[in-house]
Amino acid sequence: MTYLGGPPFRRYLVWYTLAFAATTAVWGGVLGVVLPNQVQMIEFGHWFTGADSDVDLTALNDLKAAIDAGTAVATAEQQRLLDLLAGFDAARAQSLALVTSIAMVATMIVQPVVGVLSDRTRSRYGRRAPWMVFGAVVGSGFLVAVRFAPTIAVLALLWACAQAVLNCVAGPLQATVADRVPESKVGTASGIGGLGNFAGGLAGGVGAGVLLSSVGLDVLYLYAALVLVGVAGFVLLLRDRPSTDLVVPAHRWGPFLRGFLVPLRDHDFRWVWLARILLAFGYAASTAFGLFMMQSYITPALSVTQATRLAPLLILVSVPGTIVALLLAGRISDRIGRRKPLVIASSALMAASMLIPLLWPALPALFLQSVVAGVAFGIYLPVDQALFIDVLPDKESAGRDLGIAGLGSNLGQALGPVLAGQIVALTGGYRGVWAIAAVLTAVAALAIFQVRGAR
Length: 455
Prior knowledge:
Layout: H1 6-47, H2 57-69, H3 76-119, H4 129-146, H5 152-180, H6 186-215, H7 219-237, H8 253-258, H9 267-287, H10 290-296, H11 304-316, H12 319-336, H13 340-359, H14 363-390, H15 398-427, H16 431-448
């Protein structure tokens, strides 16, 4: 069926947007707020036991800052607690990096496979609905199970399963645009869906920040319910036509997987891909531990409750600049007929933003960095995507090659937290995270100079 307009098309847009917002609320709330808190609770129980279990982390971090500044000297007991604090800081950073990175790798493996399988699914309910229902029901089950993870290892396993299975919703949901929306309305559907994507992530993060202090990890039940309601509404109210008579050519996994290497043999595509990995790597390294930095890096340090409520606002303050940049950057690049200068400038601006908290470890610096990085990211996203299209080695395989481009973002996002966690463990603090993020994003700008076949 094709929605040409009128009430059916409007109903499709509403439920497409709601289903998208429900799934991205999970990423905004769980990844941004719930998981860091859960990791912190587990590691706190490992490091501060017995009489130390009621230690005031905020006061301890303030003491550490005073000692580093040379305005206080630790007693023997205080030094013992500071040594525990250093181990705790390193452990929670490494553990959060492990949990998020394993899940990202699992998602990278699942996404293309589910895409192929949903294209070839024969059922009385259509091609996409079975995968969306599977992703919502099983993924929500894993999401609830995350609530009860007793150790970091179990948490990593459960969250990897939850994130990978929940992504069985996103891919098929996006594919319904190609299935059901005429070409003349694809831009409208994609734009409104993108708004739902963005709004869902923000609402999920802010909601977690507000609710976590009152309901604790039980907030995961709410996110599971949101996914179930969003997907159920879409599938039940927008029934797809049966695909039992679908005819598909024989598929062989070997050629399919080898095909992903083809675009990377092209000089220009390879350099743009490398630049994207570096920028995503640096950006993810800088954003991985926002909650922890509010408690342990800035002066004065915040309490867990204060940091939990403020962490989502770090994203929220970047929204206006990101939206304005998104709206203007692509249009400007089309008007001047050049992409490289804008990609280079946005990467350099991203690198400059990392220097703000590096040189000024205070709460206002974190917010200022978020605003500047948001503008840089808003410029980068549409223009870098256009640059990828300009350097495609084979326009007939655009879907495959742009999928590889997206893989570059996922790869950088998976590796960034791992690098950041290792830096915290090796240096005992977060200053090195900002330094390496600045270097990586600056190198991303330099990589674009190597592109020869685009302007």
